[in-house]
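Subject: sequence -> structure tokens, single chain

Hey, anyone have a minute? Need the predicted structure for the following. Not urgent.
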Amino acid sequence: MEHLKPFKEREVLRIESVNTQGWQLKRYAILADGRAFDAEVAAAATDETLKRLPKAGSLTDTAGNHGIGFQIIHFAETAVVSPVFYWQWGSVLAQPFQIKAHWDEPTVFKDGVDEIVGCIWEMNIVRDEVTAWTETMLGRSQNRLAQVSDYLNFGL
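Reply:
Had a minute. Here:
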């Protein structure tokens, strides 16, 4: 695999969000060439993520997370890589971990590489999520429930 080849867009899917254990997570899948979406693999990635996330906070929590974030499940060339991000302190995006499953066991997720934030395709989603948070949650409205709904549905 040549590492400095010209950039080529990858298909990005917005998959069903999860609302469990106090967490509201938007979910995305990125498909590299020759890779297809697999619901079982996505479910395994989300299950492992939920085991690792801290206890969900609330929008009124000024000292921790807000229980709202997003997960990327990247069906990449060499592995399935899944970073997760959540919002805390109003305007801070946390990236607590990344998990990875090799293609020979695509539903067995283990620790990813700590110093990696994400690839260019994942960062495009992060950029869009920062825009969504800024335009909805940090907007002028004080109706928090409406803001959460707007954020979760942003870009659909």
